[in-house]
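Open question from group meeting: does this chain pack into something compact, or does most of it stay loose? Before anyone orders reagents, we agreed to write out a predicted structure and look at it together. Recording both the input and the output here so the notebook holds the full record.
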Amino acid sequence: MEAMTTDHPGSGIDGSGSALATCVLAPNPSPMTLDGTNTWLIAAPESTVALVVDPGPDDEGHLQRVVQQAGQAGRRIAQILLTHGHQDHSAGARRLAELTGAPVRAADPAHRLGSEGLADGDVIEVAGRELRVIGTPGHSRDSLSLLLPADGALLTGDSVLGRGTTVIAGGDGSLGDYLRSLDAMKALSDEGQLRVLLPGHGPVLPDPAAVLEYYIAHRAERLDQIRAALAAGDRTAAEIVTRVYTEITPAVRPAAELSVQAQLDYLASRGELPPS
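Structure tokens returned:
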């Protein structure tokens, strides 16, 4: 999570990706979405079909551009997949389904159009190439990542960002789940399955091991900082943000407070909160 300014479009993010996955950058930059939402168009070179991951906002120009890019390569969009249901990733799904006739598959039934969902362990074929579903809850309950083994690429949604770190909001998110998801992604890297991370926001990350090690270390450091703030007498998320997030901008302070509350909930679940 970080404040950000950008000269849209995305400093080369648009059109980046891997052999099978190409980013179509949505025009919704903000401090929380970085350069905008990365919509991923996935297809094998010889394929007449394509998959779309995270259509992004309900922006007609963006959605038409996604359809056109597939069509220019002689492909129809056969399925629409969601890494999670947050609006900056999912709001355009219904309109893209109208434009293409493709079903929308998601972990959360509320975001599906069609009979099929997505669950950890599912395998989707794209012209003989596999796309494997990896459950990575934490940022939200329904968060998942998608592994393209042929490219050694993991589409991470908001579980890993191209810059900064992701928000874990209490209620919909869980720090305990998120830490387990980071460990699961790190295990994929340790096994040699990852060569690149394709995030839901921000640039492609070509060193998955280093990124995931940083994310894990960052979370441990933040928890230690919050423990120190509690020891110093802070009790509310607002007080802890003021002490710990010393360079935060007003635009992202509410998200920081949500993230701190999720960390307090995690410490409470471990019996680590001091008495009131």
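Observations to bring back to the group:
The first strand starts at residue 21 and ends at 25.
The domain at 10-218 is CATH 3.60.15.10 (Metallo-beta-lactamase; Chain A).
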